[in-house]
Amino acid sequence: MINYLIRRILLIIPTLLGMTMLVFSIMAFAPGDVADMLITSEGEMQAGDREARLQYIRERYGLDDPAPVQYLRWLNNISPVGSWTEANAADAPAGVGIPIGSNEEGHPRYLGFKTPDLGRSFIRNTTVWDAISAALPITILLNLMSVPITYIIAVGMGVYAGRYRGQSFDVLSGITMLAMWSVPVIWAGVLLQGFFANQQYLHWFPSSGLHDLQADSMPFLPRFGGEEGFQRGWLLDLLWHLALPVFCLSYTNFAFLSKLTRGSILENLRSDFVRTARAKGVGEKTVLWQHVFRNSLLPLITVAAFVVPSMLAGSVIVETIFSIPGMGRLMIQAIQFKDQEVVMSVTLVAGMLTLAAYLLADLLYAVADPRVSYE
Amino acid sequence: MENRFAFKDLVIVSLLLLLLIAIGVKFVQDDRQWQRLGQMDTVIEGQGRDIAAVRRLLSDGNFARATGDSRPTEPVREDIFRRIRDVKENPDYAQGDWLIESFGSAPPTLNPLIAGDVYGKIVQAKIIESLAVYDIETLELAPLLARDWQVADDGMSVTFQLRENVLFSDGEPMTADDVIHSLKMITHPDIADGRYIQWYSRIEKVEALGPYEVRFTFNERHYDNVARAAGLGVVPEHLYDGLTDRQIRQSTALLMGTGPYRLQDPHEYTPGSQIEVVRNNRYWGEQPTFDRLVWRIIEQDSTELVEFQNGTVDIIAPQPRDHVQMVEDEELLEEKNYKVYDTMRTLYQYVAWNQQRGGEPTIFADKRVRQAMTLLIDREQLLNEVFLGFGSIASGPFHQISPQADPDIEPWPHDPDQAMEILTEVGFTRAGEDTPLLDPEGDPFEITLVYPSGSELYDRVALSLRDNLARAGIDLKLDPQRWSLLLATLDSRDFDAITLGWGAGGVESDIEQMFHSRTIDGGDNRNAYSSPELDEVIDTAHVTLDDDERMKLWQQAHRILHEDQPYTFLLFGKPRLWYDNRIEGIVEMPKLGINAATTWPVPIEWYVPEGQQKR
Fold first, then answer.
1. Interface pTM, i.e. ipTM
2. What is the 3-class SS of B491-558, one letter each residue?
């Protein structure tokens, strides 16, 4: 098991390399230049000044070098082992290593272990790490809420549809789920917002953002009674704001998961051990939940790995519609502005999350099914 | 079956999960309390400092002078606060409430030394004040942090006397040193990225003549010198104490000033989060109406509209198409109001005809061809069908309500017959109605129009132009390009024609950047338009300090541009503003649109009568 784990973790590295290289090449081949993007919003300038500034930005970010050099430099920056330049003696050293000469400006260079550096965002004027650590928890929160909801609802419906196959519940849920599956998130999001978050129709939910404007002055937990009556509090306010986005993230996976559950429940219901159980007088409930359901869980675990990347992708759309400052919005903005370092780092983080999900699914598989072993 | 996962295990796992969630929630709660405590500490600390200052004044016996009405020291010039003072006389006037607006994208930084985008400037305008500002009504420079100023006779220097009762929002007094330091910081080559250096390059030096008097000396005569010196935002010198150049450059906030509002924490801003500024209780001038100004980041137009309907955004500027729908929405009109107005600072749309490509002059180098293009384009139709009537046809780079525009110039008419006459004169031929127009060399006349992709408005503009030119047998090929690619195309100068918008900028717009031949290489004159006559007029205008005389020169420039048509000036937009009914005091200014133009620094004259306040 440990062997397998180490092998899998080591395999992650070349996969990530391939992934980032692909994304980098696409960006390198795409026309346009971040240096151009950076100076568009500036005020009036005189002849010559523009050229000088373009040159400055290109040099500062190394955009003048050929693309492979840029990619290798980025790899060196994000890796914990590599070379670095100590530009400012006053700054804390970036790592421990041996000196290997100096760069053109006379700053010493070192080779050894160092803190990985994701770089700086061109457009956000913060380190990429800051940008990601502000955005990632929000996306994770969204997904942590929608994954269990998706699973509970889809699996529950799948089990019942399988149990009562061909009856009205099965047909109805099948049609509804399929219909929901066909509705694109971008359309559903706008519709939900327009009908369920609009004063002119049903104003049940807030229309965008994560908090009410006055959330800062709210108590943390809901309060009842008192002079102002019921106050929803900060926590409930957050959940209330998350309701529509979480629904948008969840509903497309309903059909897929419930069909899968239904299929494997049906398969297991027809199998020999179910007939045996029934024959020896085990109750129908026990048969369904103890025997059939447990055995039908296996395919669900496998697909859990695919749900994570699809939700990350879904949050790109959902976050944009509902103005939620998560990874999706960060990504979209970075791509629009060709903010190279952010795009690369978001790819890296999303890639790592996805690969981790795959690995976890494989491990869970072994836990759930005694027949599977990685020895 | 030993490892059987029984119901008991499920309960245990669920309980464990619940516990974990509870711990997580507790962490968040504690974090939030710590933040609140920190804010409280800052407030209490500030109040302590204020009390200490008051004590000192009391013991010095200066109390009466320092807190007395500041009006006796009011300057002789126009009082910038007169309009809000008048508004405060209204019987239903009340201070309070929040004003909530939205930005289409998050400003990457609010740091006044490096922020270049318009959103950042809007926020800064409420926090940082300059020595003087243009009065929104009279368009004259009116004193703000300065009491008064004198311009030297040769126009090469200006001396400002500062107000003595001005405090930064942290309670420290503002002096001449801060003014000098502000200029030093904003033109610091290691901090400001060089972007403001050019703007202030004509300021030779600035020196303190006393604790409350500064003199700016210029190295070149220019009409805009005094305005630029007066427009310098004053930031506190002590804010940058102990910070390295690099830390200053990389900070996203560091935003503090003397203005009517302040950031809760001048060091803290996370790009992408909602921006809030709160009332600065130490403000020296007339207190503003709203307790708090909030800018939410909403990227989707549809979301913004819903937020506006829900009352969680107070003002929006919808697209023409949305506006037309909103005007018919009875339910919406019960709670909201709108204004459609003209402002001379608005954007104009144009088509630039490239006169030089790869070092060779193109067919557009002949001014008759450019004139013919303008005559072929039906701008009336464009205005009504694409812009739904929200705008006015442009005759040049100046809005017709601007004093820079020559009022006698009529835009070129839509006259295809005359255009064909001109084109025939140049050597173009066309066999009949259904045949293509042939250029003097006998090839079909094709033009490729570059424009930004992803915008429905631009798509429709381009289609309209294509339709107009097709009637004359000209094949206009459309080449929509992503913004970053389009900028590269502009830089390479490798295009036939391009359509874009240009913001008219400040109160007086300098056309050097687009039309002076000096800016063909490296500047914004990307279609290589060159006119020695216009160059001279622009250069003369630059050194003409007398306003009336200079306006005559701009009008002359307008006439030259009208004749030469380096661009086909399409139209000036007419902005729309929708606002919540509860807001009173929104009025239209003669030249500058709504009376709280976004980047204007003076306290907003809008208010919400008591009883209608929401927050």
1. 0.71
2. HHCCCCEEEEEEECCCCCCCCHHHHCHHHCCCCCCCCCCCCHHHHHHHHHHHHCCCHHHHHHHHHHHH
